[in-house]
Design a protein that fits this description.
Distance between the termini of chain A: 12 Å
Distance between the termini of chain B: 50 Å
Order of helices and strands of chain B: EHEHEEHEEHEHEHEHEHHH
Structural class of chain B: alpha/beta
CATH topology of chain B: Rossmann fold
Number of strands of chain B: 10
Shape of chain A: globular
Radius of gyration of chain A: 17 Å
Radius of gyration of chain B: 18 Å
Shape of chain B: globular
Order of helices and strands of chain A: EHEHHHHEEHEHEHEHEHHH
Strand content of chain B: 15-25%
Number of strands of chain A: 8
Oligomer: heterodimer
Largest sheet of chain A: 8 strands, mixed
Number of helices of chain B: 10
Chain lengths: ~250, ~280
Amino acid sequence: MKIAVSGKGGAGKTTISGTIARALARSGHSVTAVDADVNPMLGISLGLGMDGTERLAGIRQELSEGRGDGEHEHAHTIEGLIERFGEDAPDGVRVVVASRVDMPDHGCLCCGVSADRLLREIEGTGRTVLGDLEAGVGVLSRMEVGSLDVVLVVANPTPKSIEVARRAAQTAVAREIRVLVVANRVTGNEDLEAIHAVLGAHEIVVVPEDPVIARADAEAIAPIDLDDSSPGVRAILAISERLAAEATLQAA
Amino acid sequence: MSPTTAVRPPLWPVDMPLEPRPGGPLWLAVAGKGGAGKSVISGTLARVLARRGHHVLAIDSDPMPGMAHSLGIPEPSTPPLLMQAAVKPEKGPWRLKPGIGPVAVTRRFTTPAPDGVRLLQLGKADQDGLAPVTASVSAFLQTVRRMHEARSLYDWAIVGDLPAGPRQPAAGFSPYARLYVVVVEPTSQSALTGRRVARIARGPLGADVLFVASKITGPDDRWLVERLLGEPVALEVPRDLAVSDAERGLRAVIDAAPRSPVVHAVQRLADIIQARTLEAA
């Protein structure tokens, strides 16, 4: 099964992606977490810390700097690249970073493997692929019909976040990808109504505002390691249980 | 392992003078992670500088909804006015029409905002996909990359609102900037983004960096931002409900709540930036 997480910057995509990846892996699923953001942060919410996250290599940079293991980068298979450049995160999650553009030698953005291609071509049978997308709808708009099973559209109760979520949901629907809206940082009915007013045509799950998640982000700790019984983390674990059931059904 | 022979094109124009010019214009870009408060700070800063007598060009290079609201423009024009300055040749990408340069773009193809601020906008993505963005990007890049040629803009203040993350600084969307205002809220993700943007700004772009701690609720927050960044911040901007209230009313916070803590903080930011520019001179 292939799942992508989309939404406005700061909406909580990475926290939700990392926590779901860890939870799925804990319940025995084989999980590959793809950081498709050029500003990769997924390592933090997977539990690798700030320095561990900075050490993760971007596949594009590695290839264009000649650290690939073949002579022609385009001869690589996607699976080979994940094997070669992926890293292990806690609970057995395999994490790969598509690209990062902050390195002094930033590599080439025009050749090598794009986040889009990585997500399109990665094998989703027999494992769960979880893609943490970059902010906005860019990567989603370059997906083809059927290249993802589910998009989790993360919306905070702010007008801008809801607007970006609306665009992401629309983009996913146009590509026949199922949408599950995650109403994140919800503090009450008013917040939920604001999100429902715009995104009510889709199924909505709620993740309440949670100081534990805020503290985890402040301290660069995976929320699931800090306290897996807090309301926000529990709500994300419930989403992952549901996705796990769907993945099992799909595999059967 | 064998090195590849791929030729890597530079991401920013290497022939462009990137050294900060002493006493040069007040040209700055506001950068940081999504949600850190870039649009509010950049829009308010543009208005504050305009009220202090600067000609101000606000530049919004975010293909997502951004600076227009915080400047006090209720309905941004779509497609952006910049599209009228662009032409699609038979072959090749969109470009500026012949004879149109940064000065003409600033005067004629920008949206007016209160206090005399002009807003230069990139196209916004909508349900038709990225077409308005891709079409205006070439014209946009030609404008900002030639900004330094336009002597008559040297007495302008340019305030750019960059999209989240390190991509656009690296790709040269703000080569006009002498100073990067890097906005960081007290979270590890925001701080890591701040470090990455600062690395690009100080390195390849040769710009100066000023860190702003944003959404601060107490002394611990500022301390946390400095610890996560590994360096001091120049200023803190408090978390302020006036921002979300103004956003909900589709108003600029400087209009909706001119005496709010966030507006005061941005006024102090303008003081710091003006002092730094004088120092450089």
